[in-house]
UniProtKB/TrEMBL annotation:
Organism in which the protein naturally occurs: Pedobacter westerhofensis
Any Pfam family matching the protein: HTH_18
Protein name (database record): Transcriptional regulator, AraC family
Superkingdom to which the source organism belongs: Bacteria
Gene3D superfamilies membership: Homeodomain-like
Coiled coil stretches, renumbered: none
Limits of the HTH araC/xylS-type domain: 171-269
Single GO MF annotation: sequence-specific DNA binding
SMART domains: HTH_ARAC (SM00342)
Length: 269
């Protein structure tokens, strides 16, 4: 079970996972600065996988479609500190501060090297989670501005990420879906990430694939599952979540409906 402790403001979260492993798909609406306190964090994206351990820090840009796998390690449950860098505060910051504006480009997860400034920053925010009252807004603003200053000090390209407030533009829908169909997120998120309204997304989708989005997603995920089970000899229980299904029973029913036999019957005998 994943639990969260907040300091009365959503900008700072202490995230914990009590189970041995916790998985979830995420698309953040704002950038986030993440410090892994204990355990292991695996971030799976369409073209790359990152693994972070205790003491590691990363910048998680907004609008990044990812699967997060949080795992206990070395006898300790997964725990992390997440600092949300809200767009509204970043706009205010960059309005007041001079910076060399770079051309916006697509970015992924940004691993950050160990640095004394980061160590000092996270040590300073840990006590806030034990407050029995709200953290004053002025202090919260100061801490987030401090986080931005530190990021700018240790990464010369971070302004290119944090000062870019554009929303996803319209991209090739077919290419995007072929790369990202395993991510189990609502259609409205898929539509936003391709730069479309939900209505336009559905219309363009059916033009591209001649199927409804949900029907196509189910078929693609089942085909991938069949490959994993038949060719890689994986068990259904180890496959269903990897290909975008939420529970094993739904996966098994859909698999049998599409192929005419249960996934457990493959590789028997």
């Amino acid at each position: 079970m994943a639990v969260k402790r907040e300091n009365k403001y959503a900008e700072m979260v202490l995230s914990c996972s009590e189970d041995h492993q916790y998985r979830a798909e995420k698309v953040l609406d704002d950038h986030a600065l993440v410090r892994v306190v204990s355990g292991e964090l695996k971030v799976i994206q369409a073209n790359k996988t990152f693994i972070f351990n205790a003491g590691d820090t990363l910048l998680f840009p907004r609008n990044q479609l990812s699967t997060l796998v949080k795992t206990a390690k070395d006898g300790r449950a997964y725990k992390s500190i997440v600092i949300r860098l809200a767009s509204a505060q970043l706009r205010e910051y960059y309005t007041k501060n001079q910076y060399d504006q770079l051309q916006a480009h697509t970015v992924g997860i940004v691993p950050l090297d160990k640095n004394v400034l980061l160590e000092s920053f996270f040590s300073s925010v840990v006590p806030y989670f034990d407050l029995d009252k709200q953290l004053p807004q002025k202090i919260l603003t100061l801490k987030i501005n401090e986080a931005v200053e530190i990021l700018r000090n240790i990464n010369k390209d971070v302004d290119n990420i944090l000062s870019d407030f554009t929303e996803p533009g319209r991209i090739n829908l077919a290419d995007f879906m072929e790369k990202n169909y395993i991510f189990n997120i609502p259609l409205v998120k898929f539509s936003a990430l391709t730069g479309r309204s939900l209505t336009t997304f559905k219309r363009d989708f059916e033009k591209a694939f001649h199927l409804s989005p949900q029907r196509w997603l189910t078929q693609k995920r089942l085909e991938l599952a069949h490959y994993y089970i038949s060719e890689n000899h994986l068990k259904p229980i180890n496959v269903y979540y990897e290909v975008g299904f939420e529970n094993l029973s739904h996966f098994s029913r859909a698999f049998k409906k599409q192929f005419g036999y249960a996934p457990t019957s493959i590789n028997q005998g």
